[in-house]
Write a structure and sequence with these properties.
Blueprint: E1 14-19, H1 23-34, E2 38-44, H2 50-60, E3 72-74, H3 77-82, E4 91-94, H4 98-110, E5 114-118, H5 125-134, E6 141-144, H6 151-163, E7 166-174, H7 189-192, H8 196-212, E8 215-223, E9 231-238, E10 243-249, E11 256-263, E12 266-271, E13 283-289, E14 301-305, H9 310-324, H10 333-350
Parallel strand pairs: 1-2, 1-4, 2-3, 4-5, 5-6, 7-10
Antiparallel strand pairs: 7-11, 8-9, 9-10, 11-12, 12-13, 13-14
Helix pairs in contact: 4-5, 8-10
């Protein structure tokens, strides 16, 4: 085939820096390294020693093709973003403590990089405004609300056309016990921006928004030391009229994820969710349908899920959006701001965090 007959040249993989090499950073880096449209170009973490890290990363993320450069390692995010890498970076994944999320995301966007940032997007909506100001046309900005991409959640959303509208929601998301490592940033309410609601409950808040739309009324209480609550309770009314109750807990007797949706023509129950630790498993969706002729509800249909593809799908969606300029469906700046604003309203309704 002549060069004139050949199709367009395939775009090179996007070069990604993973900023933060803890549990989430390592998970993101492994997905980037395995993705055909992405190249893991750099990682950073205060605990990394450059030479030792380079040796470890080569083995951790698999052999590199001779034509592709090795992974560069840095101990600071500023150093990683400013490094004169060749070829230069195209994107960054922010996997850092909560107090750095907005600052680092804004800095990466200002350098013209596409960004995927872990939740929460910031500690407050006001802090998120610097990110909005740095976002330029043509750049992709996504946030790590991966629960939206779980199999049970996607199936439940698809069933709303049949069973909806949603009348009420009851959600519980809890850990088995509070066990903070001394000096860990998650135990510091200033660095973390709050307690269990900001750390884990924000996922349930985001899912409730997905299923019931915007919420206008908020009542809340919380329990725990200072601004680091161990339990948060909220009663919410959506613009649609649906009412939701939420319990975000760090004092469960066992790990638990449960979301019940009462609908006009049936009900949905999301019981358990797959995770890296499998401590919230199994993941089950139960579906009740109301018979149109009798109005009775029979035995539920039960769907069980064997694998969690949410992390991979999230990276796939980010890579596609960054390469094509298409928008992110769910998990972009508008959704992140709305979810964070609702978390902030729950905190304010309960009592000031600081």
């Amino acid at each position: 085939m002549s060069s004139a007959e050949a199709g367009p040249a395939e775009a090179p993989p996007l070069r990604v820096a993973v900023l933060g090499h803890g549990v989430m950073g390592r998970r993101r880096a492994a997905l980037v390294a395995a993705h055909p449209g992405l190249t893991l170009a750099a990682v950073c973490d205060p605990a990394l020693e450059a030479l030792e890290a380079l040796e470890k990363l080569t083995g951790l993320y698999g052999p590199r093709e001779p034509a592709r450069p090795p992974v560069a390692a840095f101990t600071g995010w500023r150093e990683a973003l400013a490094a004169p890498l060749e070829p230069p970076l195209d994107a960054a994944m922010v996997c850092l403590p909560n107090d750095l999320n907005a600052e680092v995301t804004a800095a990466a966007l200002a350098r013209g990089l596409h960004v995927l940032c872990e939740k929460p997007p910031a500690r407050t909506v006001a802090e998120l405004e610097a990110v909005a100001a740095a976002l330029r046309p043509g750049l992709t900005l996504a946030y790590g609300f991966n629960h939206r991409r779980h199999g049970s959640v996607k199936d439940a959303r698809a069933l709303l056309d049949e069973l909806g509208p949603v009348l009420h929601l009851r959600g519980v998301y809890g850990k088995s016990a509070v066990s903070e490592i001394p000096g860990n940033w998650r135990g510091d309410p200033v660095r973390a921006g709050g307690g269990i609601l900001m750390d884990q409950g924000i996922h349930m808040v985001d899912l409730m928004r997905c299923f019931a739309g915007p919420f206008d009324e908020v009542l809340a209480m919380r329990r725990g030391p200072g601004g680091h609550e161990e339990d948060a309770f909220a009663l919410l009314r959506a613009r649609s009229g649906a009412v939701a109750s939420l319990h975000s807990s760090a004092t469960q007797w066992r790990h638990r994820f449960s979301l019940h949706l009462g609908c006009a023509r049936g009900a949905l129950e999301l019981d358990g969710i797959l995770s890296g630790s499998m401590s919230y498993a199994p993941e089950i969706l139960r579906i009740w349908r109301r018979a149109p002729d009798t109005g009775r509800v029979g035995a539920p249909e039960e769907r069980r899920y064997q694998r969690d593809d949410s992390w991979r799908e999230e990276v796939d969606a980010f890579a596609l959006a960054a390469a094509s300029g298409a928008g992110i469906e769910g998990g972009g700046l508008a959704d992140a701001r709305a979810t964070l604003a609702l978390v902030e309203r729950i905190y304010d309704a309960a009592s000031p965090r600081r």
